[in-house]
Each structure stands twice: as C-alpha cells, then as structure tokens.
Predict the 3D structure of the following.
Amino acid sequence: MRVAVGLGNPGTRYAGTRHNVGFKVVDVLANAQSAKWAETPAYLYSKLRIETETLILVKPTTFMNRSGIAFQDLQCRHELDLAEMLVLVDDVHLDFGRIRFRRAGSDGGHNGLNSIIESIGSPNFPRMRLGIGSPADEVDRIEYVLARFGSKEMDVVERLAQKASEGVQCWASEGIDEAMNRFNAF
C-alpha cells in the first residue's frame, strides 16, 4: 500500500489557489479513475489501483498548518513506513511548472511540511515539490500562495498537474528512484 497526501486548504475560498496545487494533483488522479471520496474527521481519501499497488489519495481537511494530524493518523492507522507515504506540496522556491521528487528534507519554510515533521518527529519522508514560482518583490508571500492562478497560467498548471499525477503513479509502482530519474527533469 502507498499513500499520496496532497497538501492544501479545504473549502471553496481556497480552491484553485497556488497553495492547493497538491489537492489538484490528487484530484486529477481520482478523476482519471472515477474514484469516490470518503471522509474522516481529518481528511478525505480515495483508493485506487496502480498496477499491482493500492494507492490511497488523501486531502487533509485540517488546513495547511495542521496537515501533520492527517499524515500521522494515516501512518498509524495503516502501520506504514514513511517511505510508503508521499507528500505533494507547493513550492515557491521552484520555478513555476517544475516538479522535484525528494527522499526527505527540511520544511523549506512551508507550514504544511513543518506540521508533518513536528507531528511525526522526522523529516524522512518522500515529497514531490510542485513549483508555483516566487512572488514579485512587492507581493507578500502569504498573499501570493493564497491567490488563484491567473488565466494565463492555467495551461502550465494543467500540464503540471497531469505530469505530477504520472509521477505519483510512477512512484507508487516503481519507487522513488525511478520517479526522481524520470520526473525531476520536468
């Protein structure tokens, strides 16, 4: 079993924002298989089959800054090794439209990753960083990540979400090394 946790904020207020690009990727995966979502107090989840692997898609409903609650619950409930859990996270330090798989790492200033690291006591879990680009100097970073993508950006966002969903499937069926080799150049 593998788990892909797309980070974002619940509710229509945050739909389509840069901070919710992790949600977008798991939605693309779920929609491709017409998967249904179920709900727990801390997250929405959907189960898929990727080749011979069960993949659980997750969207925390605890808001970004408390994403660790859902992550820790999933890890304990399913007795998963951290290597079996992938976090999909927006990244302002990565060029817009780029993907980067990593085996582990710091929170990089991201509150969702920080929450997970604090909840489980370790930064040693794989993540897929989804490049949303950096804000202009005069734009506040919080305002930037909570803003919706502009109409001129949507083609790139759609390509990013599609390519990232392929990356998640690769990670689930072939592992982190193969996913890094194939998708970190995108």
Notes: The chain has one domain: 2-183. The chain has a mean pLDDT of 94. The first strand starts at residue 2 and ends at 6.
